[in-house]
Amino acid sequence: MATFLYKLGRLAFRRRHFVALIWVALLALAGVGAASAPSAGSSSFSIPGTEAQKAFDLLDQRFPGGSADGGTARVVFKAPDGEKMTDAANKATVKKTVKELSDGSEVVSVADPYKAHAVSKDGTIAYASVRYEVPGMELTDASRDALEDAGQQARDAGLTVEIGGDALQTTPEAASSEIIGLAVAAVVLVVTFGSLIAAGLPLLTALIGVGIGVSVITALANALDLGSTTSTLAMMIGLAVGIDYALFIVSRYRAELAEGRDREEAAGRATGTAGSAVVFAGLTVVIALVGLAVVNVPMLTKMGVAAAGTVVIAVLIALTMVPALLGYAGRKVKPAGAKGRLFGGGRKKAAAGADEPASDKPNMGTRWASFVVRRPVAVLVLAVLGLGAAALPATSLELGLPDDGSQPTSTTQRRAYDMLSEGFGPGFNGPLVVVVDAKSSDAPKGAVTQVSDEIKGLKDVVTVTPATYNKSGDTATITVIPDSKPSSVSTEDLVHSIRDAGTGIEADTDAKVLVTGTTAMNIDFSQKLNDALVPYLILVVGLAFLLLILVFRSILVPLKAALGFLLSVLAALGAVVAVFQWGWLADLFGVQETGPVMSMMPIFMVGVVFGLAMDYEVFLVTRMREAYVHGERPTQAVVTGFRHSARVVTAAAIIMIAVFSGFIGASESMVKMIGFGLAIAVLFDAFVVRMAIVPAVLALLGKRAWWLPKWLDRVLPNVDVEGEALRTEAEADTDGERELARV
């Protein structure tokens, strides 16, 4: 592989105009496609195989035209102090608002609070339910404006009015802190390379790659039913890996220049060596992201595949466009250790192969690695205990999905949620819909009555509404209001209790009882993710383990990499629980409402963090293996690997942390939690696992770290990530030149 990539790097360097033109053309085409594509609607959320989804599908069949997937809104009214919603003036205002809402072109129905018994017991709060014929994200601006205008007119009449539901849901806006993350990345690159030109290359290529990836996602969003979170994730991952991959190749290029090679040769060798590591690092990320398909949740599968596509683009750009831009930069990209004029120009070039200025004093990476290999046991124990302590909160992990109760208090959705909780109880925001399929029953109405009676006798039930039948009378829906809020454990227990009771009713009456609704869907989604976590972990870690055996030609090094990854993920989950569930430092991170951790967080972090963690493993350990293959002792190879790679890996980690941290400022709670979780996971993995545990374990293992059964060594293809073929070829050329000189 190294030889092929070496030739590719030299070709891209020589044919830089052609390569740049191709990528610019692709960016332009993707941009035009995104601009001309129809706007994406809401991404359909389905969970195949779950009871909640089966009930939802049954409602579509038995209640045709019911717009089961249509948008909803709850217009919540609160009377002024000392007044009630049943007062004549307030009642007239509400009825006028209901009439105005009913005139909307996309409105299916509006429930009058006074006819639907939607007034609180104390008479201070009432609500009107609005149903639309299209999903909330697909509502026209005119429908949203009409909803807000109706609410404002009621406010002008003296009522407090807030609007909940998904009718006002819009695509979340990018946070300004994302720009801050890019700015931090730029500063780190400038400090690392000491040159504005060299620092700008990774940023430019990463932005081009993300631009292409996100534009393609936008262009296909409507056709493939992609949600807004899909492009956010692709942008997050694409920026992080795009900058890192280009950083490693540019850094290796500067090191090759410092060894005295001409620029085209240096570009080829950088692509052949660091580029090989980029390919395998990218493959681990792609495996982890595409592996999300194992969960069998279409939304999660699409997010993973889209993000994986952006990673593939980042790898291709690093292998082709980076060498091409290095050709354009020419002498403006200095050898390792040589700084531009603004950053101390005039220093002597670095010693051969070093990434630091020539000096008798070893660099920080060398000093740190030397310390670790002298005291491996102490470093290993301290690092493992530290990560273990950080992981402790994960033992109380509670999973759920965010609702309006997790929105910022500044939003009307959150204020409507709070007003409904105040007037009708916390469970009112998460009603359960019980669907009774009595088509096979001899007495359908009797079966439905039995279901209602059973549910009324269950714990944590506040209200059971009368059944609503379809036209044929063989299917009914019953709304159940729990006593607890939607994301509580008590509500989850109630869902299971209703389902358990339904099993007995089916045996007696042949009527099937299914529980659905947003709350039940969230519970089933969390359970499905929990069930898929172990198979997903086995698949992704297993495939990546095989890939790393191929890269490192070792059994213990990939095993150590996988175990270290599990430590960093558990520690990161512990931090997520501490902040988002327990509320530690919640104000610092803008968490306004604590609660269960997003149910997809564990499996998502396993996938994404594993791929990113293997990046640092590949970049750091391939340098060590390269030194070991070339004859150094195992402990000395560890020190050599750190001397060449520690500074660049540290810079890459800081950049990735900065990019992910930029998403913590997002208004959407899911994006905020993902940004924090990925940032803290990279922090733990890069600076504790890869910088401390990895060298300590390799120092303790010695030569055994690189052991591989002979039969397996013969079977495995030699991918030559270390670039041994390039070194052998160079030595052969040198010997040939010497022989000619003697002749």
Structural account:
The protein is of the alpha+beta class and 743 residues long. Helices cover 62% and strands 7% of the residues. The chain is built from 22 helices and eleven strands. The strands form three sheets. Strands 6, 7, 8, 9 and 10 form a five-stranded antiparallel β-sheet that branches. A hairpin with a 5-residue loop joins β8 and β9. α18 runs antiparallel to α19. The protein is elongated, with a radius of gyration of 30 Å. The two termini are 35 Å apart. The C terminus is likely disordered.
Shape: elongated
Mean pLDDT, rounded to whole units? 83
Q: Structural class from helices and strands?
A: alpha+beta
Assembly state here? single chain
Terminal residue distance: 35 Å
Instruction: State the helical fraction.
Output: 55-70%
What radius of gyration results from the CA coordinates?
30 Å
User: Strand-residue fraction?
Assistant: 5-15%
Number of extended strands: 11
Enumerate how many helices there are, as a single number.
22
Stretches with pLDDT under 50, minimum 5 residues: 346-359, 732-741
Taking the sheet with the most strands, its summary is: 5 strands, antiparallel
Topology:
Layout: H1 2-14, H2 16-36, H3 51-62, E1 72-78, H4 88-102, E2 107-110, E3 125-132, H5 141-156, E4 160-165, H6 177-193, H7 196-224, H8 228-258, H9 263-290, H10 298-329, H11 364-374, H12 376-391, E5 399-400, H13 412-424, E6 432-437, H14 444-456, E7 461-464, E8 468-469, E9 475-482, H15 489-509, E10 512-516, H16 518-552, H17 556-581, E11 597-598, H18 601-629, H19 634-661, H20 669-701, H21 710-715, H22 724-742
Parallel strand pairs: 5-11
Antiparallel strand pairs: 1-3, 1-4, 2-3, 6-9, 6-10, 7-9, 8-9
Helix pairs in contact: 1-2, 1-9, 1-10, 2-7, 2-10, 4-5, 6-7, 6-19, 7-8, 7-10, 8-9, 8-10, 8-19, 9-10, 9-16, 9-18, 11-19, 11-20, 12-17, 12-20, 14-15, 16-17, 16-18, 17-18, 17-20, 18-19, 18-20, 19-20
